[in-house]
Automatic annotation (TrEMBL):
PANTHER family: FLAVIN REDUCTASE-RELATED (PTHR15020), NAD(P)-BINDING ROSSMANN-FOLD SUPERFAMILY PROTEIN (PTHR15020:SF48). It comes from the Eukaryota. This is NAD(P)-binding domain-containing protein. CDD domains: SDR_a5. Residues 89-243 form the NAD(P)-binding domain. SUPFAM superfamilies: NAD(P)-binding Rossmann-fold domains (SSF51735).
Length: 250
């Protein structure tokens, strides 16, 4: 089943500062959003009942469906312990919020980071039963060892870079390498048993040749994100694509 979520949010100036989270996480006041429109190949629904944060919407995509038990009106939601969520890009701006939200929900998580030491700086000391950290770079297929995905039920890809040339492009950290090749490498390494991949993308990817998105796409970021989205959609894996407006301030 495929799902795409489109909504706008305001993100503080990038790059994000490192945020220290306490060992025992509490609910954090995150960003307010306009009511999201959730569209899939089956239906389109507009919700105005709540204004979820970007991290809340991302984490919701990995929540198990409520199960109706046979011959009963009761509903059972599988325990969080049944899930193991791998987050790629968990030290970035959106990724930090996603990981904090997963931890606050007691959902077992595994981070794929270029610099594993950042995990302790950002999220404090965590028990391995709660948070595991693996070193790897999605731009390098050799880093994506099958052992990294052992036991993983869901994957959230929060990797990204700036839309326009900046210091964050140093070390070949360009949109082509991150948003296209990195996503392609990650998806290609995922096991077929995966329950869902959630890709955090951007609005405007289907209109990158039209104003105002063509301005945002001057250096190809939306084009490469579209290529990444297309690869996810053709992968055969259950997926959710979340389109955030995160480049408007760059």
């Amino acid at each position: 089943m495929a799902t795409e979520l489109f909504f706008f949010t305001s993100i503080p100036n990038l790059p994000f500062p490192l945020i220290k989270f306490p060992k025992h996480h509490q609910s954090l006041p995150l960003f307010s959003l306009a009511p999201p429109t959730i569209s899939s190949r089956f239906k389109t629904v507009s919700s105005s009942k709540a204004r979820p944060s970007s991290s809340t919407v991302v984490v919701h995509a990995v929540q198990e469906e409520v199960v109706q038990t046979p011959n009963s009106d009761s509903k059972v939601t599988p325990a969080s312990s049944s899930k193991l969520v791998l987050v790629a890009g968990g030290s970035g701006g959106v990724g930090q919020l996603v990981v904090a939200s997963l931890l606050s929900r007691n959902i077992k998580s595994r981070l794929l980071l270029r610099d594993p030491e950042k995990a302790t700086t950002l999220f404090g000391k965590q028990d391995e039963e709660t948070l595991q950290v693996c070193k790897g770079d999605t731009r390098n297929p050799k880093d994506l060892d099958p052992a990294i995905f052992e036991g993983v039920t869901h994957v959230i890809c929060c990797t990204g870079t700036t839309a326009f040339p900046s210091r964050r492009w140093d070390g070949d950290n360009t949109p082509e390498k991150v948003d296209w090749e990195g996503v392609r490498n990650l998806v290609s390494a995922l096991p077929s048993s995966l329950k869902r991949i959630v890709l955090v993308s951007s609005v405007g990817v289907t209109k990158f040749n039209e104003l105002p998105w063509s301005i945002m796409n001057l250096f190809g970021v939306l084009k490469y994100k579209k290529m990444g989205e297309d690869f996810v959609q053709k992968s055969g894996l259950p997926f959710t694509i979340i389109s955030l407006c995160i480049y408007c301030i760059l």
